[in-house]
Amino acid sequence: MSSNQFTVASPPTDAISALKFSPEPDSTRFVVSSWDKNVYLYDLRDENGNVGEEGKLLQKFAHRAPVLDVCFGENENEIFTAGLDWDVRKIDVQSSTQTVLSSHDAGVKSVVYSKEHRLVISASWDSTLHIHRTDPNLDSFPATIPLPSKPFSLSLTPTKLVVAMASRALHIYDLKSLALLFDQSDREPPNKIEIEPWQRRESSLKFMTRAVACMPNDDGYASSSIEGRVAVEWFDPSPESQARKYAFKCHRQTVDNVDVVYPVNALTFHPIHGTFASGGGDGVVALWDGIAKRRIRQYQKYPSSVAALSFSSNGMYLAIAISPGFEEGKEDVSEGTVEIYVRKLGETEAKGKAAK
Prior knowledge:
This protein is mainly beta and 356 residues long. It has helices spanning 175-180, 239-242; strands spanning 5-7, 16-21, 29-34, 38-45, 51-62, 67-72, 78-83, 87-92, 97-103, 108-114, 119-124, 128-133, 143-146, 151-156, 160-165, 169-174, 199-202, 209-214, 220-225, 229-234, 246-249, 252-255, 258-261, 264-269, 276-280, 285-289, 294-298, 306-311, 317-322, 339-344. The chain starts with a strand and ends in a 12-residue tail after the last strand.
């Protein structure tokens, strides 16, 4: 193991579904959800405030079923979770209490939080979005928006929400429009609201979408597929901007002269440099410059499939969660196959080619 990377102590006991660093400036906390029915809160710093060699498990929050996604809310004391119990939950870290915000009619695949609009947005396999407003002065029931197909991944910017779905469909919503739903005094639960997305798109990728991640500058997003490809697109609908979109092959290996293709499970953008990392079923993490259309670097192969990635808010750390994926075809989780690695990045490690 290289000196600028370490494994986190006390990882989950089953496959990891999501990992997110705190959005607080210079925070070293991150939260992890797992199929072992728990949510884990870690901190890279020890009691003395130093970043140690293994991080520290602060708290563990038990759920009734596997947890599929997790994110921080308004601050580090607030965590939102989504899972196979069909619930969207809010965890108060200080009191360790859990509150059910809403229940879908099937497993909840994704949850995100918009600080700018104080919205919690969940996406379920019942083909709906639930929009929750966290303002305590407003009614707590969510707005429900029907989707044309099952959602696979959510990502947002200060102004946009991107929903990646089955059938290679993508919807882009204007967050201000979603926030306005809560100003309608005549709305009653459990109304399904037919709201038009700001844009409807078809994925540039040929196969099923696995992940989507928005650019930190609010310009666009990257998406990935089960078939070793990543697409980079821009929100601006003008022909000039749309002509810039492109897709490329990645996370492929030649085995016995055969091109083996792996799913690209995870994407995350660097908060400062705007470059992005991809993680695949091949156990490989790569850094990309989406503007220059070049790979910046590729790290050594990890012991199992890369399940989730997250940069810290100051861009100094990259957390890498690995766990056996379906490409291994194994039901049991053997020792060393579920791990969280944290890599401390060099000053120019994630900079784009033009930025150096």
